[in-house]
Specification:
The structure is a homotetramer.
Chain A lengths: L8 H17 L6 H8 L3 H7 L3 H24 L5 H18 L1 H9 L2 H4 L9 H16 L8 H20 L11 H12 L2
Helix pairs in contact in A: 1-2, 1-6, 4-5, 4-8, 5-6, 5-8, 5-10, 6-9, 8-9, 9-10
Chain B binds a DNA duplex through helix 3.
DNA sequence: CATGAATGAGCATTCATTCAT
DNA sequence: CATGAATGAATGCTCATTCAT
């Protein structure tokens, strides 16, 4: 994994505050002056560490994607059955959301297409690939229904994303990790052949 | 249903172009000059018909919400079983998305909370109520699993939203209406007791 | 006296509301939309009766000037002595201010130079002439001090304007007409030889 | 005295040009682009140094008020008799007007009430207090007539303001300082018991 | 006569970015 | 490395005015 994450203290400050603001207010409403205010760092310092606001956003985004892919490799890929992969995918996302809702929301909602030229959410590009891999594994061994795989992918990612949104919006108040098994089971009961 | 939709030709032009741009570029990136360019209407005309950009967005948003609620009342509420309600909800959303993807996406993604003071997506506020109504109906008669209703709600709305996103992103190319039965069945198999 | 004052009901409405707003908010802050709001008259009607906002202001201003000159001719000019002229000038202004503070303030403060190309306050142009006439009359017959007439003019107009300002600002609450004799006497005691 | 006056060169430039334009054209007609044109400073620089046009005006205004109050404390307050106070007040204002007509006119005419929330001219608020102090001192020791003090105040401030206006309008061409004694004497002859 | 939709120049302000210190 | 003064394009919006009805 390419390490893009900042290492000096001040760079870290900028990075973290930026991620928070981008999620809270959206990329366009989070201005450099906002960032300066919220971080206590100078304009100059921001432009010293990042070539532009857009590049700062891209860095944050790519780090989140890489984190996602890493987590996926660790948590999900090693599982043998489709059912287990689904369970661990839910577990991975819910625990991550409990730990760092900001990053997860960035991944889900920062709507990079508006900002960057890439178009990534968990179910698009690399994200979509991950979920499709779960599906094709489950379908290959006859564990999942032999229907349109895109549809099954939506059955996996859709509820997970919704749950995280509902957590973010305060509709769900308990930790998502309490709901891992129930959610995974429900999703699995839709997929199972 | 309160009719907020514009009636003069030019007001309509502004309204439609605005909705399109707000979805395509997001509220903040869709500037008034953009709107002027895209619609051929003058700045003054926009402000003659709508008191502000924000109010224009709010009008569009409320119209979409009202449309959703109306459709829900017509399509979904009259169905007797939970299964039928789910099927007609999927049908309603997929056919709507095929007919007017812009409005549906506005509803799903325009993220009005950034802009407006309301916070509505199909699964929040009125939208959430609609889906919860489906769930509680299905649970009341023992048709659906007696688990956390929020979770079941996410199992309904999540996949639908995902499918519409995938259609928007071009991952799905066929009309969503081709996938109504399959999707509804899949969702139902997750919910069923 | 050239009669510029409007005669139709609607023209009158525009005229009176405009004068009020020009004094209250100043010419530049009193917008045509404000005028429409405050008068209930349509934009079109305003432009039907007056060629432009500036011309409307000029009309109002010239009427006020003409009114001033007429009043001067009636009240002040016929007086024989400087003392009487001063007394009647004070009387004229104070009674006018009690009756129609708006017009008087327009005359004093609308600062037409900002707006129009004329530069008139009671003590400039025609206004100045009036006061200078009082002074030269009083000086000619040895009633007033033989000092710089401009200075004496300032001694007449300055206190009168100040009193009207203080009335407008609410510092003086009683009718100015109660103060006519006292004021005139005070001014006269400064001028008298 | 709180020092609000700017200290960097560019801030000074903005400040001085703004004061000049506000007096010449009035607050509302003096636009930021005008300011940019007249000062050679960029828009950004203006907003870097002052949070808004209104705050810029308020700063200028408050500085002028403070300057007035300081001058009053130095020149007028130490005088013992009412006559001397009047003389020094005239002297202070006339010399100030000769030196910096712009600031004095700002104080007299910028009509901040339209803009700001304070309502200060020499004879209102702090200004009025200053003149009233002169009056009450003179009345206390029987030097001035025992009439309505507001009236006496108008006899002091009115002619002074008129003279400065006449100087500004070009009616008076010689330095006002030539007229100090004559003016003070005239005013005093009105006040004296 | 009267209306009000339409126009577009102009305004106050924000913001990403540069660069001299 | 770090600062923050300076820039000016771009934005949302207001307003005097025109003109078809």
């Amino acid at each position: 994994m390419k390490k893009t994450t900042p290492d000096t203290e001040i760079k870290n400050k900028i990075y973290n505050v930026a991620r928070k603001l981008f999620v809270e207010k959206g990329y366009h409403r989070a201005s450099i002056p906002d960032l300066v205010r919220a971080s206590g760092v100078s304009i100059g310092a921001i432009y010293h560490h990042f070539p532009s606001k857009e590049e700062l956003a891209r860095t944050i985004h790519e780090d989140a994607v890489n984190l996602f892919l890493n987590k996926y490799d660790c948590y999900v890929r090693p599982r043998q059955s489709g059912r287990e992969k689904v369970r661990y995918f839910v577990k991975m996302m819910f625990e991550w959301a409990d730990t760092d809702l900001i990053t997860v929301n960035y991944l889900l909602h920062a709507r990079p297409p508006e900002v960057l030229n890439c178009n990534f959410t968990i179910c698009t590009a690399e994200g979509l690939e991950a979920v499709k891999e779960i599906i094709s594994c489950g379908q290959a061994c006859g564990e999942f229904k032999p229907v349109n795989p895109i549809l099954l992918a939506a059955m996996v990612s859709g509820p997970i994303m919704r749950m995280i949104e509902l957590k973010t919006d305060g509709v769900i108040t308990e930790p998502l990790s309490n709901l891992i098994d129930e959610t995974a089971e429900l999703i699995f009961s839709a997929l199972r052949a």
